[in-house]
């Protein structure tokens, strides 16, 4: 609980164990086997931060952190613990804390979203597990979208853009380099896989403004933003995607703060081992980098897990506050892990850390913090205080009432699907199809026109040929007719001439012949006979 301007988390004998707010941004760890009291420790620390006006974020994996939104319940066990620690004199009282509930799957909280553009190609490539070539191609796709003014908001925007670039890879290669179809197909498959884990819900608008989490309520208590992860934890890729994006967003958004008297915001990542177990090497390096740098922005992170070995060494070395609940070490591997956990503490000469670690009871922990000078204290066997809020889950109806009453409900409750790459490319596909259909119709019309023109030309040529033939036949007939006329005329002329000539010749010959036959009678008769013969 918040006491004397510090976070009182428990007692080591008669000594109070405090976490100093000034040293909280050195990050922390709460570890221990299931059922040893990690959740109680987490709530005690989180309540204290809220009481001092520091906003808190929870990743609620089991659903038992939601009780912080309701007043604690008094019972016999609580009365004993209150008396044991002298909490009544210190001002302990049951109370609730201001909570905003969130849920990527939009079932148990306000929808939590970001956009593809805000995630960016570098971080998205790490989350999708892309190789170097595929990562480079993804960067180019983002560049093409930016150059052409296409917004990448949700996963359908990204898939549409990837498909469009794949279909036009040759056209883009001149300006953007080779875009292998195999790489584009592999990225599309990875995006589809992410969608199946909830990426289609996580990527969208309105996107979370991380500054909305850095807030207090009307009493000055830090707001507690609780992300329900009961479903999300079954999708490790999405879990990692959200956690890494959130830390990166904080780092990029918040200004440098240096060493503050208290953090700007504190994050508790429950079951943190899931995030690390399912992250690629590149992603782990990104997490480690952000954890190292983000403390200068006034951000404190507490990793909650079962065993310290679940946390990468590079991150474990950054942790100032360490609360280690019991570890059950039965196998050689478990004993090795317990020894490593014990060795991570500054040794206390009063006891053997390894032995005590295995013999801790529920609600007990080995604790080491940074003192006011930033020096790790020796490890102390500590009994952890009880929380002031309710332990366990809350009824869904109560959760729903708190969700509806949140001042962020109006801003985030309703999804917005504005015009972006998907819609533009859908329209373009329709327009291209219509243009192609029009071009096809025009081509058919042109072809039909050319066919008709060819037919007309052929018909004209045929008609011209027939006319020519008809003319030639007519000319031939005319020629024959002329020849007949000429022959007739010739025959007529020849006949007349012949007859006249015959008559003339016949008369002369006949006359001579008649005279010789016998006088005038013979001459006449001879002219008639001879004339008739030669006239014809």
Structure description:
The protein is an alpha/beta fold. 53% of the residues lie in helices and 11% in strands. Helix 6 packs antiparallel against helix 8 (181-202) and helix 8 crosses helix 9. It is rod-shaped. The termini are far apart. The mean pLDDT is 86.
Which keywords apply here?
alpha/beta; 536 residues; single chain; 13-stranded mixed beta sheet; 13 strands
Can you count the beta strands?
13
Counted by DSSP, the helix tally is 17
Q: How confident overall, as mean pLDDT?
A: 86
The sequence of SSEs as H and E is: EEEEHEHEEHHHHHHEHEHHEHEHHEEHHH
How far is the N terminus from the C terminus?
A: 162 Å
Quote the beta fraction: 5-15%
Class from helix and strand fractions:
alpha/beta
**Largest sheet at a glance?**
13 strands, mixed
- Helical percent range? 40-55%
- The value of Rg in angstroms is 53 Å
Q: Per the principal axes of the C-alpha atoms, what is the gross shape?
A: rod-shaped
- Stretches where pLDDT is under 50 for at least 5 consecutive residues are none
């Amino acid at each position: 609980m918040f006491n004397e301007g510090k976070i009182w988390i428990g007692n080591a004998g008669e000594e109070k164990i405090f976490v100093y707010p000034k040293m909280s941004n050195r990050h922390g760890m709460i570890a221990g086997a299931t059922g040893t009291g990690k959740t109680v420790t987490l709530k005690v620390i989180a309540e204290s931060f809220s009481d001092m006006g520091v906003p808190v974020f929870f990743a609620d994996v089991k659903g038992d952190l939601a009780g912080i939104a309701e007043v604690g319940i008094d019972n016999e066990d609580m009365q004993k613990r209150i008396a044991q620690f002298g909490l009544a004199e210190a001002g302990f009282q049951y109370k609730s804390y201001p909570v905003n509930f969130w849920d990527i799957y939009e079932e148990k909280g306000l929808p939590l979203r970001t956009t593809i553009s805000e995630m960016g190609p570098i971080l998205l490539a790490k989350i999708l597990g892309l190789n170097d070539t595929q990562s480079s191609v993804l960067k180019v796709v983002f560049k093409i979208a930016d150059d052409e003014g296409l917004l990448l908001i949700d996963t359908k925007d990204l898939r549409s853009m990837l498909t469009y670039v794949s279909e036009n890879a040759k056209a883009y290669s001149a300006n953007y380099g080779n875009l292998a179809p195999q790489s584009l197909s592999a990225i599309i498959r990875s995006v589809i896989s992410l969608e199946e884990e909830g990426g289609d819900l996580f990527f969208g608008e309105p996107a979370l403004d991380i500054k909305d989490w850095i807030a207090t309520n009307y009493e000055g208590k830090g707001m507690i933003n609780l992300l329900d992860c009961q479903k999300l934890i079954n999708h490790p890729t999405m879990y990692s995607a959200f956690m890494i994006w959130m830390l990166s967003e904080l780092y990029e958004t918040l200004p440098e703060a240096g060493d503050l008297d208290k953090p700007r915001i504190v994050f508790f990542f429950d079951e943190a081992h899931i995030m690390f177990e399912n992250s690629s090497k590149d992603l782990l390096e990104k997490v480690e980098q952000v954890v190292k740098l983000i403390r200068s922005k006034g951000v404190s992170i507490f990793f909650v897990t079962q065993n310290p070995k679940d946390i990468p060494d590079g991150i474990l070395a950054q942790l100032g506050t360490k609360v280690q609940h019991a570890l059950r070490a039965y196998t050689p591997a478990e004993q090795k892990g317990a020894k490593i956990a014990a060795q991570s503490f500054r040794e206390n000469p009063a006891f053997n850390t390894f032995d005590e670690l295995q013999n801790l009871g529920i609600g007990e922990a080995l604790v080491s913090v940074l003192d006011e000078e930033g020096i790790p204290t020796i490890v102390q066997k500590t009994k952890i205080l009880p929380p002031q809020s309710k332990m366990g889950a809350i009824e869904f109806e109560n959760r729903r009432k708190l969700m509806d009453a949140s001042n962020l409900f109006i801003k985030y409750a309703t999804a917005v699907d504005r015009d972006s790459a998907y819609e533009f490319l859908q329209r373009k596909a329709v327009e291209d199809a219509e243009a192609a259909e029009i071009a096809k119709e025009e081509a058919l019309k042109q072809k039909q026109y050319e066919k008709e023109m060819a037919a007309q030309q052929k018909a004209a040529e045929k008609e011209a040929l027939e006319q020519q033939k008809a003319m030639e036949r007519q000319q031939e007939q005319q020629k024959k007719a002329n020849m007949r006329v000429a022959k007739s005329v010739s025959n007529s002329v020849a006949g007349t001439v012949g007859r006249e000539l015959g008559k003339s010749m016949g008369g002369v010959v006949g006359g001579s012949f008649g005279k010789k036959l016998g006088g005038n009678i013979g001459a006449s008769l001879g002219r008639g006979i001879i004339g008739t013969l030669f006239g014809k």
